[in-house]
């Protein structure tokens, strides 16, 4: 079983995020859900993004790092939307990283190198307006070039947070498919390492 650190979306640590974390716990994994929004939750992505911008991404990233500083590795980092940026950052640089999962995000390919021992999965809907065209493919190629396994999974529709049970665009069938793929990733790529 794995230790997972799950980073919430711009909506904050909502009831939906708690339900998602519980699915991993129910599968036998240890789960940590740092609240880098300090208890603030939002009903709309726009309100959550406004809060992100008010605090500033560098300060949110510092809050995240501080919240998990005491955790021992290996750790699988996963994030939803805004939280995927945190998970990608940890996958690239944190020596405790054993895997990275980006949900409802395409990643941000940058010149910095990826850690060869950290496999990556990216999950998003094909018509999601928040995904920059070509970004997932570039990130997957960058990770593969570093020597780690990398895969992207594209789902039908245009819903952004389709796995979040508290979001209006929640799709139980797609969420179940995504979860089965992620649990297989943990079992095959992380636990077997």
UniProtKB/TrEMBL annotation:
<dbReference type="InterPro" id="IPR002925">
    <property type="entry name" value="Dienelactn_hydro"/>
</dbReference>
<feature type="domain" description="Dienelactone hydrolase">
    <location>
        <begin position="5"/>
        <end position="188"/>
    </location>
</feature>
<dbReference type="Pfam" id="PF01738">
    <property type="entry name" value="DLH"/>
</dbReference>
<keyword id="KW-0378">Hydrolase</keyword>
<dbReference type="InterPro" id="IPR029058">
    <property type="entry name" value="AB_hydrolase_fold"/>
</dbReference>
<protein>
    <submittedName>
        <fullName>Dienelactone hydrolase family protein</fullName>
        <ecNumber>3.1.-.-</ecNumber>
    </submittedName>
</protein>
<dbReference type="GO" id="GO:0016787">
    <property type="term" value="F:hydrolase activity"/>
</dbReference>
<dbReference type="InterPro" id="IPR051049">
    <property type="entry name" value="Dienelactone_hydrolase-like"/>
</dbReference>
